[in-house]
Amino acid sequence: MTPSAIDADKGGLSPSSATEADYRDWIALLKPRVLTLVVFTGLIGLLVAPGHLNLVLGFTAIVCITVAAGACGAINMWYDRDIDAIMRRTRNRPIPAGRIQPGPALGFGITLGAGSVLIMGLAVNIPAALILALSICFYVFVYTMWLKRRTPQNIVIGGAAGAFPPVIGWAAVTGSVDLIPLILFGIVFIWTPPHFWSLALWANDDYRRANVPMLPVVAGARETRRQILLYTIVLVPLTLVPYFLGFSGWLYGSVATVLGAAFLWRAYRVIADRQDTQGNSLTNDVPAKAAFKYSIWYLFALFGALAVDRWVS
């Protein structure tokens, strides 16, 4: 990618270089693969909350969480279009590829975000709407615009944005927030660094090219591997807190223990991977890729077990 092409992308590619967008490009702006996990944790927060929310309002709350998360994705793609054009894994996204112009993409994201908060407030309740608005603002302004390009702690602090959905789901039912949704928030918050740094290990060259200070770029691969293991060690006992507080039963406690042990093994495999003197993998980061994939499945299974446990107990 030449500097002139990057500059053109920052302001939008010229019409002659752009191809016409279709509905799939607009869906891609929402980052649907990321959406799935966000919506699922929000749904679990709603399902395990005490009280009752009728089916229509429950569905409305989940749709609002989904649309808000998609709005964050669209605004993130608008803001990061310059670095997306540089990185191999993102350069075919709709904006850097020229299929959607930056202005419409930003308008799309703002409209979806504002609409989701408004509907949540009018149809469900104000506390859930306020937390939803906070999550959008945190992702857009704190993570995307402030942290991502400035500090290797971008994922650590910015991970809070992805941890809000179970709190929002809980608030949709109860109209308030107490200890349990904060624990669920904490689980997702601590899970995010080992999850994302496993990806960053093998996408390191992309981030280096784009001058994004992800931990492997700034601190090196060896320190990143150590941090993945440390955060996983903190995560596993945290996932057992709902059991020890009596909020969940033996089913969740057992599943969390088994899943956590497997996550620790994956993290150990990452740090034990064959490395050169700088800590770079000699196996094409196979353990890191496996850890990344497992971490996604792990969070689905952990939160799913919590919901099933509450249902059978």
Question: What report would you give on this structure?
Answer:
Helix 11 (179-202) runs antiparallel to helix 14 (221-239). The protein is built from 17 helices and no strands. It has two domains: 1-177, Tetracycline Repressor, domain 2, CATH 1.10.357; 186-313, Up-down Bundle (Four Helix Bundle (Hemerythrin (Met), subunit A)). The chain is an all-alpha fold and 313 residues long.
Q: Could you give a quick summary of the protein structure above?
A:
This protein has 313 residues and is mainly α. It is built from 17 helices and no strands.
Keywords:
313 residues; flat; Four Helix Bundle (Hemerythrin (Met), subunit A); Tetracycline Repressor, domain 2; 74% helix
Query: Which spans of ≥5 residues are poorly predicted at pLDDT below 50?
Result: 1-18
Helical region count? 17
Main sheet? Answer: none
- Rg computed from alpha carbons, rounded to a whole number of angstroms: 20 Å
- Strands, count: 0
Question: What would the average pLDDT be, to the nearest integer?
Answer: 91
Output the CATH homologous superfamily of the largest domain: UbiA prenyltransferase
Distance between the termini: 57 Å
CATH class of the largest domain: Mainly Alpha
Instruction: Give the helix level as a range of percent.
Output: over 70%
Structural class: mainly alpha
Order of helices and strands: HHHHHHHHHHHHHHHHH
Q: How many structural domains are formed by the residues? A: 2
CATH topology-level name of the largest domain: Tetracycline Repressor, domain 2
Per the principal axes of the C-alpha atoms, what is the gross shape?
flat
Strand proportion, as a percent range, falls in under 5%
Named CATH architecture of the largest domain: Orthogonal Bundle
